[in-house]
Amino acid sequence: QVHLVQSGAEVKKPGASVKVSCKASGYTFTSYGISWVRQTPGQGLEWMGWISAKNGHTNYAQKFQGRVTMTTDTSTSIAYMELRSLRSDDTAVYYCARDRRIADITNWFDPWGQGTLVTVSS
Amino acid sequence: SYELTQPPSVSVSPGQTARITCSGDALPKQHAHWYKQRPGQAPVLVIYKDNERPSGIPERFSGSSSGTIVTLTISGVQAEDEADYYCQSGDTSETVFGGGTKVTVL
Questions:
Q1: Which secondary structure element, helix H or strand E, spans residue A39, and what is its range?
Q2: How far apart are CA B60 and CA B73, in angstroms?
Q3: For residue A1, what is the DSSP state?
Q4: Which of A:32-51 have CB within 8 Å of B?
Q5: What's the average model confidence in pLDDT over B14-20?
Q6: Nearest by CB to B92, which of A45, A101, A115?
């Protein structure tokens, strides 16, 4: 059974960085990419970007360019998302999800990790 | 970037049919996917590529597409179907979600 298990909740001060991990199991890690999606309190879903677990190629949403870095460790089947220069409006639940895609045509997310709450507060 | 528009809420009685729409200018050229999210839980994929149902998703969930509108249909709604539903679309370099629709089972 495919599972994604994320690291625990974080509390950060404005200007700091956070790094969230996502451990995959139940499938060949390098056969799929990982996307990261966040959900601000009471709001909808926002795609942040994608990383190929096969070759490390990344594609970040324009909004997060320059502030986010996604990496993978194929030896442990763990994906990481680091977000820098945190602001109060970065307070959100951050999800990783296995990214299913057809070439450059379309992609969808299945399954999702349980989510990691990141709180940014002074 | 483009947008996907969903109605904020849909109410339905048990056993009836719920239809949730998602509209967007790029939908005639892009596949759409649907997720169900219950409070405090992660989203779950219920429909992908407009009308494909993942294994383990009940047959009462179906999807359709017509022009700039895609529709998620829940037939014979059950209490456990009460949740937020999100559509998602885009090419692989820019994917967006709709604002979500809260389905209330009366």
A1: strand A33-39
A2: 8
A3: -
A4: 35, 37, 44-47, 50
A5: 97
A6: A101
Strands A92-102 and A106-112: antiparallel
Contact between A108 and B92 using a beta-carbon 8 Å cutoff: no
Q: Closest by alpha carbon to A4, among A72, A59, A78, A74?
A: A78
Let me know: does A107 contact A35? Beta carbons within 8 Å. yes
pLDDT at residue B67 above 80? yes
Averages of pLDDT over runs of 10 residues in chain A (122 residues) are: 97 98 97 97 90 95 96 98 97 97 89 98 96
The overall longest dimension of chain B from CA atoms, in Å, is 40
Q: Given an 8 Å threshold on Cβ–Cβ distance, is B43 in contact with A112?
A: yes
Chain B nearest-CA distance from A39, in A, is: 10
Per residue, what are the HEC states of chain B? Answer: CCCCECCCEEEECCCCCEEEEEECCCCCCCCEEEEEECCCCCCEEEEECCCECCCCCCCCEEEEEECCEEEEEECCCCHHHCEEEEEEEEECCEEEECCCEEEEEC
Contact A112 B88 (CB under 8 A): no
Record: contact B99-A106, CB cut-off 8 A: no
Cβ contacts (< 8 Å) between B99 and chain A: which residues?
44
Give the H or E element holding residue A101.
strand A92-102
Q: With an 8 Å Cβ cutoff, are B92 and A44 in contact?
A: no
Task: Give bridge partners of residue A117 from the DSSP assignment.
Answer: A93
